[in-house]
Amino acid sequence: MTRHLLSCEDLTAEDAILILDTAKRLGELSTGPMRKLPTLRGRTVVNLFFEDSTRTRISFEAAAKRLSADVINFAAKGSSVEKGESLKDTAMTLEAMGADAVVIRHPASGAPYRLANAGWIGGSVINAGDGTHAHPTQALLDAYTMREHLRSGTGDLQGLRVCIVGDILHSRVARSNVTLLTTLGADVTLVAPPTLLPIGVEEWPATISYSLDDHLPETDALMMLRVQNERMNSAYFPSAREYSRRYGLTSSRMSRMPEHAIVLHPGPINRGMEIASEVADSPRAVIIEQVRNGVITRMAVLYLLLGGSESGLGDLVDEEATA
Amino acid sequence: MTTWHIAGAQPLGGEPVDIAISDGTISAILPTGSTPAPHSTLIEAHGLIALPGLVDLHTHLREPGREDAETVESGCRAAALGGFTAVHAMANTDPVADSAGVVEQVWRLGQTAGLCDVHPVGAVTVGLQGERLAEIGAMADSAARVRIFSDDGHCVNDALLMRRALEYTKAFDGVVAQHAQEKRLTEGAQMHEGVVSSRLGLTGWPAVAEEAIIARDVLLAEHVDGRLHVCHVSTAGSVEIIRHAKARGVKVTAEVTPHHLMLTDDLVETYDPVYKVNPPLRTARDVVALRAALADGTIDAVATDHAPHPSESKDCEWAAAAMGMLGLETALSVVIETMVNTGLMGWAEVADRMSIRPARIGGLEGQGRPLAVGEPANLVLVDAGASWVVDPAAMASRSRNTPYRALTLPGRVVATIYRGRPTVLEGRLV
Amino acid sequence: MNLPARRVVLDASDISRSVTRIAHEILEDAKGAEDVVILGIPNRGVHLAHRIGGLIETFEGREIPVGSLDVTMFRDDLRRGKLRSLEPTDIPECGIEDRLVVLVDDVLYSGRTVRAALDALGEFGRPRAVRLAVLIDRGHRELPIRADFVGKNLPTSRSETIRVRLREVDDTDEVVLEATS
């Protein structure tokens, strides 16, 4: 049993498919007007955000509220964290408030591990992105989106060819996606300039490439990562123009992909840098769908961790419970 | 009482003898079973190994400035329990030990504690800032008689300053102990750069950042014929550079920490900052190379880099945590575990790497001496067959940041004799 | 070893007769079933719903909308037990607004599943009326809920277990009463 969702390495293929299937079922329940499901009534979910991320916070907030949980938003800005309160003291405060789950976003890799394992709190910890380490719910919503489009919304992703392009070195999205997608049977290729690939990447379960053009015809799903202009200052690449010429997704590059192929982006997108405007707005880009899928995926995670008397991850679900 | 009779100890693991100590020196070495001299106190030591008192080249005693983490007195208690009779107190205190005044203060605190020799290390540059030389001569001439100079915690990055330091210290037979860490290559570094860091998303501290500085420094030392000591060597590549330099006759010595002989970077997967240290824990391949280098003498000494930190500096997320680990009370056990029980070294080599050579590098006269008549009575009695479970709460250090928590380690310091007087008996401070 | 006492209370032909009777009763109640939507509650209620719908189609010669409604998220006893996996919810194209919805489940026991189903229906609209059809009513209600169409009333003790097995998932049609020792 896994009480927390800290990284995709915690998830077996069965767990991951259970989350995706649960998200699918929740999507079926949400076709009408967005009314609340009573499932987590009386439970408290704290969104503990040490890093600005309105998108992710809103997504988790919507997910928790849709399940009728009480939501407390705790942002580092304007809170005691800015006055130098430690993660430990913040955690113990939340524990005293009776948090059943803490959704944490933190600039330090591993902060959710500390929160979960240092004995400061008793509730579930859900990693909403830590440093350059992991962002498991993003990977889950990406896998969900790919499965809907390319695998009829069921089962695993056996044989799916996924290409992740951009700043792999600093990307928690890439790390979590490599782990989750390979767990689900997909073949992952990472494309980046050598400076934006970590030392040690050769041990990852992925193919490494420096050339985007080589892989376009054999890609079912293309994931473009945001590349920050600031990276230029540390000599990762000479200029935005040069980066975009070699690694940006243009219309002509998109036209070399198979017809069924889709384009994903974790957002926020950087138009004209890693992705051309006309690509972002094309029907093959599923970026807005990813946002929608984010809410049901996070609902699924919250339900599976908090819905029963104990977590439903890492364990078989009792399907024969008496009616 | 100034006369002691140690019965049945095995010097360097050899045949059992009785050792008589009187007025701070070894007064006689007798066949075991000899009758103790009148009025002498018996120390029962059958089955115990006798080694010269251990000498640590690299200890952070934190005083002045961070007495919440450690004091000279508490650090000396930890040292005595670990079998040490001399330690070198690193300069990164607050104020920095970059003047005669501060080093004399530390030296006097050591004298007052009276548990082991405390030799202050002087800073190479003012305030460890790496900009201009500290008053090295004044520190050398002070009551503390400083011989080792180091900006430890910071690398002397400026090649010209490093050259000058290596030259200038020649006047006092001093040595520059370099913390080898190329600054630009380690900006924001959190752990060894490799497969594990790539997965954990922690900024890498590449081996080359250490090796590049060592390579530069041995060339500088060769050029000016100065004495270089390399602190906490942590990579297989560094070992190769030092081996090569020694073969060329460069005056270079090197130390390795116990933790780099035992622990590897995969421990970081827990994100527990107790494993955060600088230089970082490296790979199993590096550990093998470091052990081999210590065994063949390429690395001269084991030095603890004992680095106490208060709990709030470790009870936090990885990136916010301080770097460093406790080492004094576990050093000998870790060396027994990694070097003796593996068959890589015998007790004579343990004595050489933990006492004789460090004393020579530090220019200490009464330490690291043979266990022979007329020599200063600095020695440690070790029960090599015993084992113990490391309990942070039971440590003499003011801090609790030991990476060996709950591990069972072999070898127990039973007694430490410092200047002819026990500081530790039956494993407890006297 | 203490094997549970096991008694077949309905065999395949009993089940078939019960389902047929329920289909007729629904038809009668709905006066021609013009606006009937049949929703099964997973798992086995869905298969029963399809059987009932199929029969009504045969009787009436036109298509009857049949779907499924997973009520898990609306249960009030989730935190008391192990986590339940979610089952498909499939509301027919026509929706349920102003329709006569017939909920179908295999066993009616505490009534909590039905209560959850009534809440779940609210997600999708406001039916004209809701009816309940069950294959087995075993008693022991904890809520003021009753079935409109019952295959068989089966008095049980709480220590007994009812297992409904349907050929769509279990390769056989039978209802078994097990006395748990």
H and E string of chain B = EEEEEEHEHEHEHEEHEHEHEHHEHHEEEE
| CATH homologous superfamily title of chain B | Metal-dependent hydrolases
In the CATH hierarchy, what is the class of chain C? Alpha Beta
The profile of the biggest β sheet of chain B is: 9 strands, mixed
Shape of chain C: globular
Domains of chain C (count):
1
The Rg value of chain C, from CA coordinates, equals 16 Å
Task: Give the proportion of residues in helices of chain B.
Answer: 25-40%
Number of strands of chain C: 8
What does this structure look like?
The complex is a heterotrimer of chains A (323), B (430) and C (181). Chain A is an alpha/beta fold and 323 residues long. Chain A folds into two domains: 8-135 and 291-306, Rossmann fold, CATH 3.40.50; 136-289, Aspartate/ornithine carbamoyltransferase (Rossmann fold, 3-Layer(aba) Sandwich). Chain A has ten helices and nine strands. In chain A, the strands form two sheets. Chain A has a five-stranded parallel β-sheet with strand order 7-6-5-8-9, covered by helices on one side. Chain B has 430 residues and is an alpha/beta fold. Chain B has one domain (52-361): TIM Barrel. Helices cover 28% and strands 22% of the residues of chain B. Chain B is built from eleven helices and 19 strands. Chain B has helices at 72-81, 100-113, 136-141, 159-168, 195-200, 207-224, 236-247, 258-262, 284-296, 331-340, 347-361, and strands spanning 3-11, 17-22, 25-31, 41-44, 49-52, 54-59, 84-89, 117-120, 148-149, 175-178, 191-192, 204-205, 228-230, 252-256, 301-302, 379-389, 408-418, 421-425, 428-429. In chain B, helix 4 (159-168) packs across helix 6, helix 6 (207-224) packs parallel to helix 7 (236-247) and helix 7 (236-247) packs parallel to helix 9 (284-296). Chain B is globular, with a radius of gyration of 21 Å. Chain C has one domain (13-76, 86-156): Rossmann fold, CATH 3.40.50. Chain C has helices at 12-29, 44-60, 112-121, 167-170; strands spanning 5-10, 36-40, 66-68, 100-108, 129-137, 149-153, 160-165, 174-179. Chain C has a five-stranded parallel β-sheet with strand order 3-2-4-5-6, sandwiched between helices. A three-stranded antiparallel β-sheet of chain C has the order 1-8-7. In chain C, helix 3 links the parallel strand 4 (100-108) and strand 5. Chain C is globular and about 50 Å long. Chain C starts with a strand and ends with a strand. Classes of the chains: A alpha/beta (323), B alpha/beta (430), C alpha/beta (181).
